Amino acid sequence: MKTRNLGKDGPEVSAIGLGCMGMSDFYGPADDARSVAVIHRALELGMSLLDTADMYGVGANEKLVGRALEGRRDRAVLATKFGNVRGSDGSFLGVDGSPEYVKRACEASLRRLGVDTIDLYYQHRVDADTPIEETVGAMAELVREGKVRYLGLSEAAPATIRRAVAVHPIAALQTEYSLWSRDPEDELLELCAELGIAFVAYSPLGRGFLTGAFQSVEDLSADDWRRHNPRFKGENFKKNLELVEAVQEMAREKGCTAAQLALAWVLAQDRHIVPIPGTRRIARLEENAAAAEIELTSEELERLAEIAPKGIAAGSRYPEVAMRTLNR
Predict the structure, then answer these.
(1) Active-site position among 27, 56, 121, 122
(2) Residue 56 annotated in active site
(3) Three-state SS across the chain?
(4) Confidence category of residue 210, pLDDT binned at 50, 70, 90
(5) What is the value of pTM for the model shown?
(6) How large is the average pLDDT for residues 299-328?
């Protein structure tokens, strides 16, 4: 597996990481045994960056990742997040970036993960009611205490990122980025390059849509959150399927899968970008990992830019309420 640096002063990580969210939440029934096998295979393939969060499965995903890392901790760069608060029933209770909550959340994550130190600790969403300086200040204390190695932000606005960096170095910014979510190109990618921050691209396969696996919303399980995502609904689904078909056609010509082509495109955008596709299947994991070896020519990149220009996706990234928590 090829590697990239997690920020100018951060650790070396695999060029493609593994997003673990869907193993425990949002994308249908969980299968912990199969998911642990996927994580083990990821580590065998050299996919060192594992991404979870305290809200995924209301703590269940952190426990799962922790179990999978028993005896393998030294092979992983472990990332988790805090800030999105959920009730025990899974209800969303808001965003909390207060210093007191930062410390409580970190202690809880350490217990669930069964580790002494979190390699990369993200603020999952920016708390509009707490100055970023206070939140990052509390996160920096965790670094000084040895509980966290590096700090990250997720879905933060450019001005917020600059204010955060003035308090403590930020190793990574995690934001959605793919062929159908190209908003980070407006300012974020350039800002991260300027400040020496790695850009961790979540949902680089468009929540699975860009793989071509879905031909209708009925292909999703009844409890799959994507049924409520605007891009998976009604006419938006049909419109977005046209993009997928164009990507699939180019992938066939290239001799790879649509997923591999989409991941290779993300990797080709800049050396400081690390995509973290998620999967619960070893075959898909191996397919994703192989994308790190695919090189795209300038002509192929130009063609993909024509196939998927900025703003091509029909529908917003999230429902309206969730959209209000982005870019703060």
Answers:
(1) 56
(2) yes
(3) CCEEECCCCCCEEECCCEECHHHCCCECCCCHHHHHHHHHHHHHCCCCEEECCCCCCCCHHHHHHHHHCCCCHHHCEEEEEECEEECCCCCEEEECCCHHHHHHHHHHHHHHHCCCCEEEEEECCCCCCCCHHHHHHHHHHHHHCCCEEEEEEECCCHHHHHHHHCCCCCCEEEEECECCECHHHHCHHHHHHHHCCEEEEECCCCCCHHHCCCCCHHHCCCCEHHHHCHHHCHHHHHHHHHHHHHHHHHHHHHCCCHHHHHHHHHHHHCCCEEECCECCCHHHHHHHHHHHHCCCCHHHHHHHHHHCCCCCCCCCCCCHHHHCCCCC
(4) very high
(5) 0.96
(6) 95
